[in-house]
Specification:
alpha/beta, 2 domains, five-stranded mixed β-sheet, about 55% helix, about 5% strand, globular
């Protein structure tokens, strides 16, 4: 978990999903203790109610978390002599859980009640964006994306690392179908399926289940190791074989954590936007006209007084490509600024990889001509830490975009 790329990245991001990850993982832990008969139903409902209330106070969509302890209540067998009251006891536990959740959610987020009309308006907007009924420019990468397939190809291999993701898939289908492992499977599905079928499929929406997926992957490693250890217990040269087995699994563990070790480069090195900015101040003449893109985190070049570089002034045009296909005036403006530009900067993959060719032919034609040299520019510099632009957009654009610089030929 320490070397999980997704958890490393979200440790650096100030999003609500970091808190939700804590709450969901805690709910699963408390529920597993209840399924193991180590705690009472009263303890489960009180602690889970507090955790669910805090999660809902943090983000209203986490109301789905409440189904995790409910699932635990339904899955735990009730022993005699209370068999005839089993379902009534479960109903009481679920009702009490809901009561505690509501109270805690109101106490820790009172403005949802105090400013109820504003809260409802905010929820309508956010739900419209999430469901795709309101299409905004920063969700275009999800056009025609296929639920489940998108997460399996554009999120999990990068956030977990491919080895850990493969182990998770193996574990999900192959691990024994015992009550506690089934609970882990169902907890994953309870969160994953509703989130996967939303129109917006940002990586952060999947963050709360990263630890759960890693736990399932860990169980595969653990049980495989124990199986191999038992297999060689009666074989000659037992000690030597045990050492070889341990060595093999050390290699396997290194393979699993290597994506996280590699991802640490993002934070060990200087931000690529600073690298690109320094290069521009050193190599692009003062007074040059630079065509860039709007909608990114920051405009490049970035001023840094700590750099011992002669101060240069540029005419930076931050062009809005998002309405290019729908605004003839924009198309004419782009043609004019391209003629004036001495350099073109692509700050990230945010525009050129997020527009469907059929729906946005103008945008795609511009980038096609730029990359092939038909626009009259040639790439002269590229700054990157990792080559993972195929991942979901927000995985790269916020903390390690690839910056490309083109010069007029």
């Amino acid at each position: 978990m320490i070397f999980s790329p997704g958890l490393i990245q979200f440790a650096h991001f100030g999003t609500t999903e970091s808190l939700l990850t804590l709450f969901l993982t805690s709910l699963i832990y408390v529920s597993l203790k209840y399924l193991s008969s180590k705690t009472s139903a009263n303890y489960l409902t009180k602690v889970s109610g507090i955790l669910c209330g805090l999660a809902i106070a943090t983000k209203i969509s986490s109301i789905i978390f409440i189904f995790v302890p409910i699932l635990a209540v339904l899955m735990r067998p009730i022993q005699p002599p209370r068999l005839e009251l089993a379902w009534w006891d479960r109903v009481k536990s679920i009702v009490f859980l809901g009561f505690v959740t509501i109270i805690v959610a109101i106490v820790f987020s009172p403005h949802n009640i105090i400013s109820f009309p504003e809260f409802i308006n905010s929820m309508r907007y956010e739900s419209s964006v999430a469901l795709g009924s309101l299409r905004v420019f920063y969700t275009r990468q999800f056009t025609d994306s296929i639920p489940i397939i998108f997460q399996a190809t554009n999120i999990f291999p990068y956030a977990l690392g491919r080895p850990a993701f493969i182990l998770f898939l193996i574990g999900f289908f192959v691990l024994p179908y015992h009550r506690k492992i089934n609970f882990l499977r169902l907890s994953f599905l309870l969160y994953f399926l509703p989130s996967a079928f939303a129109f917006t499929k940002w990586t952060r929406f999947m963050a709360p289940i990263f630890p759960l997926m890693l736990i399932i992957a860990m169980l595969v490693v653990q049980q495989t190791y124990e199986f191999c250890l038992n297999t060689i217990s009666n074989v000659k040269r037992k000690t030597k074989n045990e050492k070889l087995l341990l060595f093999a699994f050390c290699i396997l563990l290194f393979v699993i954590i290597y994506p996280g070790i590699r991802f640490l480069k993002v934070y060990q090195n200087e931000d690529v936007r600073f690298q690109a900015s320094r290069w521009m101040y050193q190599n692009i003449p003062s007074g040059s006209t630079i065509l860039s893109e709007s909608g990114n985190v920051v405009d490049i070049p970035i001023d840094r007084e700590t750099w011992n570089i002669e101060r240069r002034t540029y005419n930076v045009i931050s062009f809005d490509f998002y309405d290019l296909d729908f605004n003839p005036a924009r198309q004419k403006e782009l043609s004019e600024v391209v003629k004036r530009a001495d350099y073109i900067v692509i700050p990230s993959r945010r525009v050129f990889r997020s527009h469907d060719k059929k729906q946005f032919p103008k945008v795609n034609d511009y980038y096609s001509r730029l990359f092939t040299g038909k626009l009259g520019f040639k790439q002269i510099a590229e700054f990157k830490v990792l080559d993972d632009e195929s991942a979901e957009e927000t995985w790269t654009v916020f903390d390690h975009p690839i910056v490309r610089i083109f010069k007029r030929i």
